[in-house]
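Recap from last week: sequence in, structure out.
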Amino acid sequence: MINKVGESVSFLTVFVGLNGSKEDLGIQAHNCWHFTRPDLEQLYDEYSALSTEELPNHDVPMMFISFPSAKDPSWHETNPDKSTCLIITWSHYKWFQDWENGRVKHRGEDYESIKTAIGKRMLQQCIKLYPKMEGKVEYFDVGTPLSNKYYLGFQHGEMYGLDHNMARFLPQTSIQLRPKTDIPGLYLTGQDVMSVGLAGGLYGGLLCASALLNRNLYNDLQALQKELKKSEDTEKKQK
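Predicted structure tokens:
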């Protein structure tokens, strides 16, 4: 299946520790998707065509920015005047493949130089969106597709398992991406039997549970939703 569909793209992550509360830094408990231009497919193709050496000299065209500490209501109690930031963009394993046989944290100066340069460029792009972060960075680190491979166990640091291309959603592929396998007792779940992300993972779990129980749990959930709504409407009328 991997040979037929291919792997999804990998990702590069910048981990940032900041001095200051969310109020001081002007950050919020939200996620930000930042694009440098609206033509996303062209942006992807242009950036993907760059060589490893060219990457540090180009702005990253797409970034996902999040502030985990701002989402934690109890964070300030144990970490006063400290905040965290996470910046993610897509990446390709081939850009860092020359260092795949090196040891973690001992991959050499060239590897450290390139990943740090890309990470700093991403951080500066982020600071343009959140200018109060300027001068407040206390911790900075960058994880590459090689980091994803080592810490997360993905073969090539891929973000979403199987790729999401036309081949994946053809009938002959979809019929194989199902919870029940040809191996007795082995069932598949998660995003690779449905679609990527949190929602895809949840529905993948629902399909797997349905296959195990030989029961359409989606219909059960719809029926439950109707019953709950009916109960809520009744309570409102009684008030």
